[in-house]
Amino acid sequence: MEKIIKINCPYCRAETHWQNNPSRPFCSERCRMIDLGRWDNEEYTVAGEKAQEPTDDSGEAPFS
Q: How many whole angstroms from its chain centre is CA 59?
């Protein structure tokens, strides 16, 4: 017998099952896409120092 693992959706906090959930760890495709959109809009950040832009030999950014 397989143990049912219940988790809370990281976006809406609704309880959902881990097994057979194609959107895990989210409860639905909707919550999954909302979270992805927040990353794309840079609403989330990762702690740390900001990385420097790469430069070529002239000192300018290569894709300016």
A: 33
What would you report as the CA-atom Rg of the chain, rounded to the nearest whole angstrom?
19
Instruction: Report the CATH number at residue 13.
Output: 3.30.50.10
Domain containing 18 equals: 6-40
pLDDT tens for each residue of 22-36: 999 999 999 999 999
pLDDT at 47: 85
Residue 15's φ and ψ, nearest 5 degrees, are: -75, 135
**DSSP E strand boundaries for the chain:** 6-8, 15-17
